[in-house]
Inverse folding.
């Protein structure tokens, strides 16, 4: 029997990867748009669904999928807060994720954003694009080898970024509740307060845990940072207080901020606005207006060849294991049904 899958959120450049890596010979329906309430019908007659982040796998859609005969719900992401796990359990739908993929993808983006802000390259090229070739004081910068970089969350991604910065000559500090031996080879672990106070660049790579670290990057966090430091968040938007970010730049507490993420980002990201059109969120609009001191990328951290390959291959393998064995090593724990 040929297994049929609908894959939501497949960008044009990703289609060839989905097809080329399909060694299980699944029958694919590749849908470019993210899953929402208007395109759930694409799952009709399918056995499985593969999602990406920001897809809307809520109870309403999961109920539809169950009616369509869908048995497997997979996400090609490490996070799964876009899936209503209780609803999936209620409709006996098996869920699996991709727990890890190329750490270089996120680490390289973080490094790129940090170096752009440190050397003011975006500021400079923005001027030269307007045929202004004068040099001003903003274009002066420190060299990275004379800087201290603080990594908050030194897992695989944090360690990779630490190694990249270390290779450029930077002094690298780290903070993590778990201090692995491998990380100790690259970073010097210190308390969070010390890392914030001593670092010229802070890069955040901690997982978002609802109810525990919501908006951990807040005014208190920023006030503990070194004056004129740079802040990078390529982890999760729920970790940051956007108003605190805006205040930090307007008050010149920080020299620059870059983020690849926002909470509820699907309401803004992946859309094209008219140049004179304001965003619905005035705080995010304020951050956009502070370009090039604020750099925003639309959640492209994992948008690399290697990360995409990892995510698709693992998703396909997860489905094969679920079908053959009834479980996979990457199952998402579902809450027990209440009787």
């Amino acid at each position: 029997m040929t297994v049929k899958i609908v894959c939501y959120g497949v960008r044009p450049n990703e289609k060839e990867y989905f097809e080329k890596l399909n060694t299980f010979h699944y029958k694919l329906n590749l849908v470019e748009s993210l899953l929402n309430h208007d395109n759930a019908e694409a799952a009709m007659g399918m056995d499985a669904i593969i999602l990406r982040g920001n897809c809307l796998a809520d109870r309403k859609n999961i109920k539809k999928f169950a009616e369509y005969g869908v048995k497997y719900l997979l996400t090609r992401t490490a996070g799964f807060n876009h899936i209503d796990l209780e609803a999936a359990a209620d409709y006996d739908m098996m869920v699996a994720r991709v727990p890890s993929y190329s750490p270089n993808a996120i680490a390289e983006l973080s490094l790129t954003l940090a170096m752009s802000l440190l050397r003011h390259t975006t500021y400079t090229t923005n001027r030269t694009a307007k045929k202004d070739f004068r040099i001003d004081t903003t274009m002066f910068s420190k060299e990275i080898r004379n800087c201290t970089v603080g990594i908050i969350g030194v897992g695989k991604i944090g360690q990779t970024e630490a190694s990249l910065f270390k290779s450029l000559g930077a002094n690298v500090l780290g903070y993590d509740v778990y201090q692995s031996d491998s990380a100790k080879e690259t970073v010097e672990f210190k308390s969070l307060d010390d890392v914030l106070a001593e670092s010229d660049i802070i890069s955040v790579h901690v997982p978002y845990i609802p109810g525990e670290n919501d908006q951990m990057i807040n005014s208190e966090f920023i006030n503990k940072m070194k004056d004129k430091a740079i802040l990078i968040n390529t982890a999760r938007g729920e970790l940051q207080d956007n108003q605190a970010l805006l205040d930090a730049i307007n008050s010149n507490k920080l020299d620059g901020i870059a983020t690849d993420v926002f909470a509820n980002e699907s309401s803004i990201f992946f859309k094209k606005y008219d140049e004179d059109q304001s965003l619905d969120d005035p705080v995010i609009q304020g951050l956009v207006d502070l370009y090039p001191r604020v750099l925003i990328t639309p959640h492209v951290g994992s948008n690399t060849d290697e990360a995409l390959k990892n995510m698709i291959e693992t998703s396909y393998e997860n489905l094969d294991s679920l079908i053959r064995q009834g479980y996979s090593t990457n199952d998402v724990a579902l809450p027990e049904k209440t009787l």
Observations:
- The first strand starts at residue 4 and ends at 8.
- DSSP finds twelve helices and twelve strands in the chain.
- The first helix runs from residue 15 to 20.
